Amino acid sequence: MFDKITSRIQKLCYGLNMEFIDPSAMTLKVISGLYSGVTTVELDNFVAETAATLTTKHPDYSVLAARIAVSNLHKKTKTSFSEVMDDLYNMVNKTTGRKIPMIGEKYYTIIMDNANKLNSAIIYDRDFSYNYFGFKTLERSYLLKIDGKVAERPQQMLMRVAVGIHGEDIDAAIETYNLLSEKWPGGFAIYLEPWHPCVFEFLELRKNTGKNEQRARDLFYALWIPDLFMRRVKENGDWCLMCPRVCPGLHDTWGEKFEELYMRYEKEGRFRRKVKARQLWCAIVESQVETGTPYMLYKDACNRKSNQQNLGTIKCSNLCAEIVEYSSPDEASRVAVCNLASIALNMYVNPDKTYNFSKLKEVTKVVTKNLNKIIDVNYYPVEEARLSNMRHRPLGIGVQGLADAFILMRYPFDSVEAKYLNIQIFETIYYGALEASCELAEKEGPYETYEGSPISKGIFQYDMWKVTPTDLHDWAALKAKVAKFGVRNSLLLAPMPTASTAQILGNNESIEAYTSNIYTRRVLSGEFQNIANIPADLKALYKTVWEISQKVIIEMAADRGAFIDQSQSLNIHIAEPNYSKLSSMHFYAWERGLKTGMYYLRTKPAANAIQFTVDKTKLKSTTDATAKTNGTTNDSLSGTVNAVKNEEE
């Protein structure tokens, strides 16, 4: 048994760092947990879980765990893509005996008609490129099941999605499959403007304390804030709370029109209640410290910098605070729809540590055209959603792995080089998306509500920010082309959180900096930044978001914002938030022109390393002795402090 398990592990260790991977030690650990009658499937699962627990020793253990799990899945599933799709199409409910197909008849027919070509295009070895956490996320949430058992492999899922996008265009489906291979629970976000008479009660709804009948903790809350409120807070002025029925039109206007209407109602005394603006501001900050919400979105920036401003006033965003689209009681715009995809930015770092902007632009164009196709072939639960999507055709292209790209380039997240690369990346994505959308418009015509939009007048997103792009791309030529043909999509970029998709690909989320390095994730006091032996350049490179100035995070958000025509899910991280820190951060975000000033406020529970002192002379002699033994210099860090005490507030 020992030799059999060890041999199986060794076969899957190709390309891994065998200085850290010990198959024999793993086997001993597995055997110690075996029981009589264990099946081969259960054994594989146990071996994979054992490898996963060793990831803290070396990340290659996560790759090994995934390989074992994938190998196990391959043993249980069919190799033929078309056969698996046939099983999914002919699936029967065992209880009722009724056929319940998991794929549509149209796509089933296309797959069967092109079975040989699709089957031969799939490269199953790519399933082994996932890490364990990514694979288990796929297995749990994305791979289709028959009678509760996973029926398809990751590569088959990707091909199924590609055919769903392109239908009978098999070559395009295979192209998309190749790019993909290298449904979501519902939630509600409630948006309210701060002049509403119930705003104070609104801010209490997610709090942990208070009567349950006065709380709604499963909802998410956001403020849709006009500039006037921010100025009143800054000036310590009065703020009036008004009933939308007594004071109509406030939510239908923005900018000067809103301010004129608000001050007219204020002057006429039509408000329900007058408070100091800072009293309400304190309630907002207090709620954020306790619950991480409400989100902060700036109404005037969202409308002033929107390519949909010709349609009317935008009144809210979405659950993740990156979608800024028009909706209205009118049937054709009643339900705004977001059509999303994310690009893994770390994939465009060349081996020589240069960035491949050309490839990024090329892939962005493919993503844009794919999303545009999805609008036409998608399933719409309500007709209003279909009508809106067909009229405005908005896209939401996001990213993941920005921090990973910086690491590969050896740029500290807050360095000048990273800041410039941040601009160039989003400039490239915006350029590629616009160019692709213009090419689509040349063939199919611009989207229905194009006329009157800023872009129909030659105004691009960066123009609304009064920003001049770099010389990386020929913007003048693109503007001339757009002026001639228009664009097929009203909106293009919307960096979303990428919570699960980043896990699948093993990337850091979205535009975020790393929240932790694994060897310090439980420690707040005594972080690695305070260890003298680590070189300064490594300290800078591996800074976590807790060690990066949030002012820098906001500045980088504003820099990329000039190329984001929707908005971005921007989390703010403050380990120990207070009124002063939050107020300063919010006002800086507003003054920099951000649309989303804050998605979630992330804070840290108290966690302190046990305090003790070390005689530096003894530390030096110990380090010198270790260096001689290992043949290394004093610059090496070979010790680990394991005594950690967690004290959660």
TrEMBL record:
SUPFAM superfamilies: PFL-like glycyl radical enzymes, R1 subunit of ribonucleotide reductase, N-terminal domain
One GO cellular component term noted in the UniProt record for this chain: ribonucleoside-diphosphate reductase complex
Any one Gene Ontology molecular-function term assigned to this protein's record: ribonucleoside-diphosphate reductase activity, thioredoxin disulfide as acceptor
ATP-cone domain segment(s): 1-79
Domain of life: Eukaryota
Gene3D superfamilies listed in its UniProt record: 3.20.70.20
PROSITE patterns found in the cross-reference section: ATP_CONE, RIBORED_LARGE
Keywords recorded for this protein, A-Z: Allosteric enzyme, ATP-binding, Deoxyribonucleotide synthesis, Nucleotide-binding
Keyword ATP-binding: yes
Pfam families for this protein: ATP-cone, Ribonuc_red_lgC
Residue ranges with Low complexity bias: 625-635
The keyword Nucleotide-binding appears for this protein: yes
NCBIfam families listed in its UniProt record: NrdE_NrdA
Function of the molecule: Provides the precursors necessary for DNA synthesis. Catalyzes the biosynthesis of deoxyribonucleotides from the corresponding ribonucleotides.
Record-stated family: Belongs to the ribonucleoside diphosphate reductase large chain family.
Record PANTHER family: RIBONUCLEOSIDE-DIPHOSPHATE REDUCTASE LARGE CHAIN (PTHR11573), RIBONUCLEOSIDE-DIPHOSPHATE REDUCTASE LARGE SUBUNIT (PTHR11573:SF6)
Protein name: Ribonucleoside-diphosphate reductase large subunit
Organism: Homarus americanus (American lobster)
